[in-house]
Amino acid sequence: MQTSQKHQTRVNIHRLYHQPVKDVDQFCLPHIQILENNACSDIGSQGPSVSYQAYNDQIFTLESSTAAASFVAYDSPSAISVSSSRSPFSPQGSQSWMSDPHHSPDNTHGSPISGSSVVDDSNGLKHKLRELEVSLLGPESDIIDSCNCCFTSGAHQAASMAGLNHEQLVDMIPRLDLKEVLIACGQALYDNDKSRVAGLMHVLEKMVSVSGEPLQRLGAYVLEGLRARLESSGSNIYKALKCQEPTSSELMSYMHILFRICPYWKFAYTSANAVIKEVMEYEQRIHIIDFQIAQGTQWMYLIAALSKRPGGPPFIRVTGIDDSQSNHARGGGLSIVGQKLSEFAKSYNVPFEFHDTSVSTSEIQVQNLNIRPGEALAVNFPYVLHHMPDESVTISNHRDRLLRLVKSLSPKVVTLVEQESNTNTSPFFSRYIETLEYYTAMFESIDVACPRDDKQRISAEQHCVARDIVNMIACEGQERVERHELLGKWRSRFMMAGFSPYPLSSLVTSAVRDMLKEYNNNYRVVEREGSLYLGWINRAMATSSAWR
After folding, report:
1. Are 362 and 389 in contact (CB under 8 A)?
2. What local confidence, expressed as pLDDT, does residue 237 receive?
3. Which of 59, 167, 484, 543 is the most exposed, having the fewest neighbouring CB atoms within 10 Å of its CB?
4. Please, are residues 397 and 390 in contact by the beta-carbon 8 Å criterion?
5. Can you give the residue range of the structural domain that contains 395?
6. Overall pTM surpassing 0.90 (yes/no)
């Protein structure tokens, strides 16, 4: 009997993301038809081509600057990812971080680039704060290292350009490595050598392109971040980007393109839903609090799966917290999401209720969440906690405050999905190199699914990815809202808030592996210490974990 039930559970979880298209599509918001992984070329390139309008011609110009014809391109799509030997996706024979028993891959005490720790630790106060942070949060995960080993050699080679003047650099463009120029430019800005930065940025303009290879595309957006930081206008540019968003329908289509060609959001939905379904197997009344509900599509899959439960479906109540980008994309508030989910649940004969909190994540209080006795509670954090300012930004520390608040609700399970990147408290140059590595891998993963000259893909990258890159490079303090942490740090935060890990079962792993069959075979999933890592080649991109 147990074997039969286990088999049935496996089948149900497998079906969680393999419902017939018509079951979900007819209830989805415009442009969200997420069950088909069509080639990007099917989207066509005749749609609106939306470019950034110049905020300041000298600061923000994201027009496509074609690379010089004689430029020797950085043309190894996997070179950056493969050399990261400390990832759970690395081959056994590579140089291993395990040779250093004291190495803590989440530890941001020094720079991830060899030889830069002297510069990073020159500020004694930051050094002491880092020590305090480590002592409070404890040693971090030994699973994954997002240190930027692949850019280490580039950092040393970039130093060789230090003695070259502007004219010499321009003459050398056909022989320059874009990776080295990007690194040299970041180092010069970190050293506050504005004259040298200006010369290097002039060189970068001739080497980057929003329709080029992955590193060229990334370089175009990094260049704008560097310009903004140099002019101390990062916050203004970031705010300007928010003001210059495309129309609701255009933004929705751009978000849909990335959703369809990359598995990052499906990874979040699939793993979280599989865990919640497993934990709530015998509950009759379920309350789900989603701290970034977006278009609500995730819960359609879960509703469909729970409708088939032996003995009848449970009562499901969803509380949604909105974000400004999703609100703009859908063209209205969460009442739109609530209506769609209610209609979908009704079609499956699932008793359902939707609650709109009408407050932002950082302002949430217990009274906003409409907690009721007798309901089993699940809380979902999909790529949202890294936006919460922590103790390094404000004494309010909304990041940990929110975790303590959620713990006080006694949830049956909390699901967390976050980018596996280390940009929160790292010094600028360390954060800059980490951003280069992480987003090079992301642009590579997009590159295999879309033609480089596809206008829709270009617009999707500009409006859904570029702002984050500019923010991480150009902004500091409260203006920098992109503050990623590695799983080891999240683990410390959750445990300090009173949570204990809920190890993900093999059924959850199987559900994610089945989902990934729709995508390029360079995507990998690895289970370590009860959590899942989604990787592109040898680079960990996102993690999924559960807590109770």
Report:
1. yes
2. 64
3. 167
4. yes
5. 262-420+484-547
6. no
